[in-house]
Each structure stands twice: as structure tokens, then as C-alpha cells.
Amino acid sequence: MPYSLSNHPHHHDHQPAHGHSDVPSDPALRTKALESLLTEKGLVDPAAIDAWVEAYEKKIGPRRGAQVVARAWVDPNFKGRLLRDATGAIETLGFLGREAQHIVVVENTPAIHNLVVCTLCSCYPWGLLGLPPRWYKAAPYRARAVIDPRGVLAEFGLALGDEVEVRVWDSTAELRYLVLPERPGGTEHLSEAELAALVTRDAMIGVAKAGALREGRA
């Protein structure tokens, strides 16, 4: 079900009482420090980590999700199954694994626009979209996407008319959401592969429309 403000508890950011920390405050620095420590203890292989990151950044995400969307645009039967049983439909494309399971696909239409968030942490369909963007994991997006979704969309350059209903979907560890964007007009002549090239990660989260390539955010 889409998120309802009536049952959404207010979130507050609490700063630690002490004035210092034993680890760097920047998440990237903390991650690097943890990686160095695990490497020093022989628990991880830096080359394996690099290969894993590259696979999710360049080989998986967001290409797999884009292929799912493009197939839905050209195949009404696949689209119908995708909206009824997303996990089963996605498996027919060979995209298996835990991160591609327990998916619900919600469709954008001229009257309805869907936006995905994870208010508790950063639950996200890694197996379809690759690594989540930094802003998706940030507290301001997680809070404001529920409280002021139209304002958030406007900051991403997506202004919707009052006649469009905005639905916010809260992903969890057990259930992740993927937006099926509207197919851009004038694309009837494009192949499935060409259509997939129009589908961005942001469009499948719901902060952009397909075909409207955006720059400057990572």
C-alpha cells in the first residue's frame, strides 16, 4: 500500500551527546577505514570488493531494471504479469538472486505518479538498479519524500500538475518497489534495446521521467 501520512511517526535526528567520535564522520571515510581494517586482518580481498562494486555499478545497475521496463513497454502480456507478480515476471528474464526477489512494480500513468523511498534505512532493489545513489540514503530525502513528495520532485526538476496523484511507497527489507515509468511519446519506432537506453535509475525510483536524462546527481 502507498504510504499514509496519518500513520507516519515524526522522525527526529538526534546528535550524539559527546563532542567527538572515534571514527571519521564522513561515510566514505568510515567505509574506507573499515575496508582497510578487514584487509589488514585478511578477512576481505580488495580486488574482490572492487570487482563487486564495478559489477553493480556498470554491469547490473541500472541496466537490468531498464531491460525489465523496456520489455513491459513492448510486451503487454509481460507488463500484465509484471504488475501482478513482479518477481515471477523478472525471473523469466534470467534476473535471479535475493536482491531481485520480493519486488512490487507500480505503474506511472498520466493520472498517477509513484515515488519510492525507504524511511527506515536504504532498502533498494540492488539486483535491478545497482548501487543506490547517495541522496536515496540521506535522511533529508527519506523524511521529506513522505512529508512533501511534490516538493522533493520539484527539486529534482519534475513538476507535476495538481491533477496528478502522487503515491509514495516505503520499501523494506522484505519488500522493495520499482516504478514502471510512462513510455515517452514518439518512441514507437524504437527497438527494445533502444527503449532500455531511455530508462534511468531515477525514473525507476520515481524522481524523474524516462527519457529525461539528468546530470549532476550521484
The average pLDDT score comes to: 79
CATH class of the domain at 56-205 equals: Alpha Beta
Strand order of the largest sheet: 1-4
Structural class by SSE content: mainly alpha
Order of helices and strands: HHHHHEEHHHHEEHH
Secondary-structure arrangement, i.e. CATH architecture of the domain at 56-205: Alpha-Beta Complex
Question: What is the CATH homologous superfamily assignment of the domain at 56-205?
Answer: Nitrile hydratase alpha /Thiocyanate hydrolase gamma
Backbone shape: globular
Radius of gyration: 19 Å
CATH fold type of the domain at 56-205: Nitrile Hydratase, Chain A
Stretches where pLDDT falls below 50 for ≥5 residues? Answer: 3-25, 212-217
Helix content: 40-55%
Beta-strand segment tally: 4
What do these coordinates show?
This protein has 218 residues and is mainly α. It has a domain at 56-205: Nitrile Hydratase, Chain A, CATH 3.90.330.10. 41% of the residues lie in helices and 10% in strands. It has eleven helices and four strands. The protein has helices at 27-40, 46-60, 63-74, 76-84, 86-91, 126-129, 134-137, 139-147, 149-155, 192-196, 201-205; strands at residues 103-107, 112-117, 165-170, 176-180. The strands form two sheets. The chain has a two-stranded parallel sheet with strand order 1-4. It has a two-stranded parallel ribbon with strand order 2-3. Helix 3 crosses helix 4 (76-84) and helix 8 packs across helix 9. It is globular and about 55 Å long. The relative contact order is 0.16.
